[in-house]
């Protein structure tokens, strides 16, 4: 079971998202493949009444808000994967759910449904690489939209739990729907060098840190590409009293474009608290 509570505010928008998800994993006898299924429900709330005028008109410059927007949204995920050759693991995921990262997204009930393939390869020495390629449909916005995304990683292991690497990501949207409250450029790319370190203790305190430095490029339809530096860092602690149970806190800062921003002129920071109990 996994629960999450989020409250987001920006300008006149305020949104809340409370979710509960259950997951199970099945491994067929005699194989190294596994299937993981997840099903959940998210309760969404907002200050929509302040935006609903005659005829359901929304805020100036935004998407009209419908008085019949659902207060509950279901999420699902199904992943199947396993080894396909020596040192190569591949998988396929079909997933969907509410896109509730910010108050405008919660207010408009934006959701995504899509499919993604993943592959990881163990290379000679301490090298490993991984990548994903996916497509998703974005629903409930002012216009239908879809996106294609590719990610790639190359890591060199220093010690158990510590590595250096190079990361890359490219995202492209069919429509640049900025008024809907999410980051939807014609093309967005980021490449960075990353350092990650942690004390990989199964029991007790664990300290985690990661930093990335690179470059990001954003292109919006009809405009020239904008390129700037990208930096991010995070640090935190996790406490595991017994196997399967943990509590932790993480601090993070970043200026890499995300659902919160629509240009490279972006900086953000936050605190994440987490708890995990395996029954």
What strand line-up does the widest sheet have?
Answer: 1-2-3-4-5-6-7-8-9-10-11-12-13-14
Shape: globular
Strand content: over 45%
Number of helices: 1
Taking pLDDT < 50 over at least 5 consecutive residues as the criterion, the unreliable ranges are 50-63
Question: Which helices and strands, and how do they pair?
Answer:
Blueprint: E1 2-10, E2 13-26, E3 34-46, E4 72-85, E5 88-98, H1 103-108, E6 111-122, E7 127-139, E8 145-159, E9 162-173, E10 187-198, E11 204-219, E12 226-240, E13 245-254, E14 268-277
Antiparallel strand pairs: 1-2, 2-3, 3-4, 4-5, 5-6, 6-7, 7-8, 8-9, 9-10, 10-11, 11-12, 12-13, 13-14
Structure characterization notes:
2% of the residues lie in helices and 63% in strands. The protein has a 14-stranded antiparallel beta sheet. The protein has 1 helix and 14 strands. About 5% of the residues have low confidence. It has a domain of 195 residues. The N and C termini lie close together (9 Å). With 279 residues, the protein is mostly beta strands.
Features:
14-stranded antiparallel β-sheet
Task: Please summarize what this structure is.
This protein has 279 residues and is mainly beta. It has one helix at residues 103-108; strands at 2-10, 13-26, 34-46, 72-85, 88-98, 111-122, 127-139, 145-159, 162-173, 187-198, 204-219, 226-240, 245-254, 268-277. The protein has a domain at 83-277.
